[in-house]
């Protein structure tokens, strides 16, 4: 499902980004909730099911591990074990760049996109991922990044540009690997170092600390193994539904997986609506 969604988006308009920054997506969703009378509360960590309102439908936009911890013995033992055994992917080390000039790619065709993937060849990607899987930080990682101000100048002050890039590292890795990331970009865009004004580095361990859903710094909400493409986290027409009525897991840890597409929440809400209608009939 996820590859199909991705290919459809690419065929329609290329790889999209939010105008004004990713915060615009959160603001739009918050506005919709407000229009329907909803209230968003923050700063209230939930660690026990007793903290949740009784009689309501609960939607967990969390990792499977977090939902299992909150619901505890309320879950059937087999389902709880499934959530606890859910596998997570590698960590990521991310660098945000403030640039004096756009990345000097050297070829005009490379300036027409806001997203880039950098590696010497497939062999480098395979070697780097094998090293990460073995718990080793790759010396020459493959790098995924973006240069959003190429197509949305409003994201940066006049006369400056923004870029970001990350690479995979072992889960929970506290090491700053920004030098390797910069070196990979420099190999593909000579002179890149000279246009860097400032950087902010977020290691895998910091990713996990900032957002507990990013277990070990995994920003993909779970390993994308063949098994977990099919069983994410369980096999079924609506994997967002749990054995407990009215309780759903609606994060990217459910099919169709990671990405800003909203399908996990959509499927959970549709199931909740149909279940509610059935209860009334």
Biggest β-sheet: strands ordered side by side in the sheet: 3-4-5-2-6
Query: If you compute it from the alpha carbons, what radius of gyration comes out, rounded to the nearest whole angstrom?
Result: 21 Å
The chain-level mean pLDDT equals 88
Major beta sheet summary: 5 strands, antiparallel
Give the N-to-C terminal Cα separation: 32 Å
Strand content: 5-15%
What report would you give on this structure?
With 281 residues, this protein is of the alpha+beta class. The chain folds into three domains: 1-37, no CATH class; 41-88 and 221-281, no CATH class; 91-210. The chain contains nine helices and seven strands. The chain has helices at 2-13, 23-35, 64-71, 77-84, 122-133, 178-188, 204-210, 226-230, 263-280, and strands spanning 58-60, 91-99, 115-118, 143-146, 161-169, 196-202, 247-249. A five-stranded antiparallel beta sheet has the order 3-4-5-2-6. Strands 1-7 form a two-stranded parallel ribbon. Helix 3 (64-71) packs antiparallel against helix 4. The longest helix is centred in the last third of the chain and has 18 residues, at 263-280. The protein is globular. The mean pLDDT is 88. InterPro entries: FAD/NAD-bd_sf. It comes from Gordonia hirsuta DSM 44140 = NBRC 16056. This is Putative oxidoreductase.
Summary, kept brief:
The protein has 281 residues and is α+β, with helices and mostly antiparallel strands. Helix content is 33%, strand content 14%.
């Amino acid at each position: 499902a996820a590859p199909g969604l991705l290919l459809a988006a690419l065929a329609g308009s290329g790889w999209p980004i939010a105008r004004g920054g990713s915060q615009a997506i959160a603001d739009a969703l918050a506005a919709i909730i407000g229009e329907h009378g909803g209230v968003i509360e923050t700063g209230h960590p939930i660690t026990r099911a007793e903290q949740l309102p009784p009689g309501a439908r609960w939607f967990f936009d969390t990792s499977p591990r977090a939902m299992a911890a909150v619901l505890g013995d309320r879950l059937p033992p087999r389902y709880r074990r499934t959530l606890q055994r859910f596998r997570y992917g590698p960590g990521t080390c991310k660098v945000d760049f403030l640039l004096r000039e756009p990345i000097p790619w050297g070829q005009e065709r490379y300036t027409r996109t806001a997203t880039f993937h950098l590696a010497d060849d497939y062999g480098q990607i395979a070697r780097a991922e094998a090293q990460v899987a073995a718990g080793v930080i790759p010396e020459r990682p493959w790098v995924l990044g973006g240069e959003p101000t190429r197509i949305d100048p409003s994201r940066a002050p006049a006369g400056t540009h923004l870029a970001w890039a990350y690479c995979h590292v072992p889960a929970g890795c506290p090491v700053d690997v920004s030098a390797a990331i910069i070196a990979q970009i420099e190999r593909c865009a000579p002179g890149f170092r000279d246009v860097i004004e400032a950087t902010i580095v977020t290691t895998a361990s910091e990713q996990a600390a900032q957002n507990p859903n990013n277990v070990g710094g995994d920003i993909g909400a779970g390993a994308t193994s063949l098994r977990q493409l099919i069983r994410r986290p369980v096999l079924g027409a609506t994997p967002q539904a749990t054995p407990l009525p009215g309780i759903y897991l609606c994060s990217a840890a459910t099919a169709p997986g990671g990405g800003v597409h909203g399908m996990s929440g959509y499927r959970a809400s549709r199931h909740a609506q149909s279940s509610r209608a059935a209860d009334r009939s």
